UniProtKB/TrEMBL annotation:
<comment type="similarity">
    <text>Belongs to the DNA/RNA non-specific endonuclease family.</text>
</comment>
<dbReference type="InterPro" id="IPR044929">
    <property type="entry name" value="DNA/RNA_non-sp_Endonuclease_sf"/>
</dbReference>
<dbReference type="GO" id="GO:0004519">
    <property type="term" value="F:endonuclease activity"/>
</dbReference>
<dbReference type="GO" id="GO:0016787">
    <property type="term" value="F:hydrolase activity"/>
</dbReference>
<dbReference type="GO" id="GO:0046872">
    <property type="term" value="F:metal ion binding"/>
</dbReference>
<keyword id="KW-0255">Endonuclease</keyword>
<protein>
    <submittedName>
        <fullName>DNA/RNA non-specific endonuclease</fullName>
    </submittedName>
</protein>
<feature type="active site" description="Proton acceptor">
    <location>
        <position position="119"/>
    </location>
</feature>
<dbReference type="InterPro" id="IPR020821">
    <property type="entry name" value="ENPP1-3/EXOG-like_nuc-like"/>
</dbReference>
<dbReference type="InterPro" id="IPR001604">
    <property type="entry name" value="Endo_G_ENPP1-like_dom"/>
</dbReference>
<feature type="binding site">
    <location>
        <position position="150"/>
    </location>
    <ligand>
        <name>Mg(2+)</name>
    </ligand>
</feature>
<dbReference type="InterPro" id="IPR044925">
    <property type="entry name" value="His-Me_finger_sf"/>
</dbReference>
<keyword id="KW-0540">Nuclease</keyword>
<dbReference type="GO" id="GO:0003676">
    <property type="term" value="F:nucleic acid binding"/>
</dbReference>
<dbReference type="Pfam" id="PF00932">
    <property type="entry name" value="LTD"/>
</dbReference>
<dbReference type="InterPro" id="IPR040255">
    <property type="entry name" value="Non-specific_endonuclease"/>
</dbReference>
<feature type="compositionally biased region" description="Polar residues">
    <location>
        <begin position="274"/>
        <end position="283"/>
    </location>
</feature>
Length: 470
């Protein structure tokens, strides 16, 4: 009897083993070593001696943290089917792993700011276990995102990425914010001017780095961090990895062969050929240009030598703003640039502002009235009294004292309705066919020939411009 029982147990064991070996294994969940397979974009180091480029590695993602900005420089993660399950969303939490003495951003720091607590590695990308999902809610993985950005095309792209995984792919994703729209939390947390993302798409497999080729699909987007874009398609913000490298200063996909990088980083998703790179300037890498209305927006081959006015807002009350556009083909320092306001037909400037900082190629720079509504100020890089104009006032942009663009006619007062009856209580945008400024500040001004007119308090295009030459 004992022998028969032993034989039966052995048979059951063998059957169980064979049956288990026939079951298709599930895809392994991402672990820490997967997240930087394609490279460390900024050479981040896990040492408190590097407070502006501090490396944090978790199974769920890797990131470079900037202590003084209170947000990550970038976050990198691997995504495949093993990372996606059905656990519930967790709660936001302070990241207590940061070095002692560093300010640790709290969940309440975003309260009342008007900005969402926006995930870089999405909660939806880490739903296999509760611990995985909780890791995405550390405030080091969060940046301030405008609700229409975060809840609109940004989340649509996140959903699309998971659909790619469901279709049998695995992804390497890098995400972050660029530029600055100001701060929240009493200056402790920087608000990015735009949010960017890179997605490298591979079929499910192994030895992933070696499988990246000239034909590998790479999605790169750069999306303005503003209201008014909730219903936009994320594809409206397609750009190139090269353009994002120029914008951020990081070296993406650095572990990939240089020859392959040169191809896939210069190509916009959906196009069949790389975008030609701009001629490099001293000390910079060649940069390709994006081809759709993103931030930065496309260069078209008809570049200008200087910045120019691209939008004029003469709205209700103090809702007034000016937008400059960089169509030069390279990043531009604002040192030497100045804007002057000539009121009521005067030939002497009543107000001026000297600009500082820089503007990436294809990007914009917005100057707003300090008393404008939050809808305008949230889109501004700076506020200035030079934006205290009326529809009959002329504006001049100079570089080292030389006129590079003008709006209106200095020395001429067209009356309260403005030039052509369209510069008062209106928003004007430079026609897409205009690629350089009007350098004669005293010539006659007919807005309809070079500007498109929009109704009072139209702010939807502020902070985003493109040029399309005929």
């Amino acid at each position: 009897m004992k022998d028969r029982r032993l034989i039966t147990l052995l048979a059951l064991f063998v059957l169980g083993f064979v049956g288990a070996s026939l079951v298709q294994p599930t895809q392994a969940k991402t672990v820490s070593s997967d997240n930087l397979v394609l490279g460390n974009p900024s050479g981040a180091v896990a040492s408190s001696s590097y407070p502006t480029n501090y490396l944090i590695q978790r199974n769920q993602y890797a990131l470079s943290y900037h202590r003084d900005n209170g947000i990550a420089n970038w976050v990198s993660w691997h995504l495949d089917s093993g990372d996606i399950g059905s656990v519930s969303r967790s709660d936001f939490q302070t990241d207590t792993s940061l070095p002692s003495g560093w300010y640790r951003v709290a969940t309440g720091d975003y309260s009342g700011s008007g900005y969402d607590r926006g995930h870089m590695t999405p909660s939806g990308d880490r739903t296999a276990t509760t611990a995985d999902n909780q890791a995405t809610f550390y405030m080091t993985n969060i940046i301030p995102q405008a609700p229409d950005n975060n809840q609109g095309p940004w989340v649509d792209l996140e959903t699309y990425a998971r659909e790619l995984v469901s279709a049998g792919n695995e992804l390497y994703i890098i995400s972050g914010g660029a530029g600055s729209r100001g701060t929240i939390a009493s200056g402790k947390v920087r608000i990015p001017n735009s949010t960017w993302k890179i997605i490298v798409v591979l079929s499910q497999g192994s030895n992933d780095l070696s499988r990246v080729s000239n034909n590998t699909r790479v999605i790169a987007i750069n999306m303005p961090n503003v209201q008014g874009i909730r219903d936009n398609d994320w594809r409206d913000y397609l750009t190139t990895v090269d353009a994002l490298e120029s914008l951020t200063g990081y070296n993406f996909l650095s572990n990939v062969s240089t020859n392959i990088q040169n191809v896939i980083e210069a190509r916009v998703d959906g196009s069949t050929t790389p975008i030609p790179t701009a001629v490099p300037t001293s000390g910079t890498n060649p940069t390709a240009t994006p081809v759709r209305t993103a931030t930065p927006t496309p260069s078209t081959g008809c570049t200008s030598s200087r910045l120019f006015f691209s939008e004029y807002v003469e709205g209700s009350s103090n809702n007034k703003a000016l937008e400059l556009y960089n169509n030069t083909g390279a990043s531009v320092s604002l040192s030497g640039y100045s804007i002057q306001l000539y009121a009521n037909g005067s030939t002497s400037a009543s107000s001026s502002v000297n600009l500082s900082g820089s503007v990436a190629n294809g990007a914009t720079y917005v100057i707003a009235n300090a008393s404008a509504s939050s809808s305008v100020q949230n889109l501004a890089n700076i506020t200035s009294s030079v934006a205290n104009f009326n529809g009959n006032d002329a504006l001049v942009l100079t570089y080292n004292g030389t006129v590079v663009d003008s709006f209106g006619q200095v020395g001429n007062d067209p009356g309260s309705s403005g030039w052509g009856g369209t510069t008062t209580d209106r928003t004007l945008r430079r026609k897409a066919t205009i690629s350089a400024g009007d350098t004669n500040r005293s010539d006659s001004f007919t807005p309809s020939s070079t500007w498109d007119s929009y109704s009072l308090d139209t702010f939807s295009g502020l902070g985003n411009h493109s040029v399309s030459c005929p």
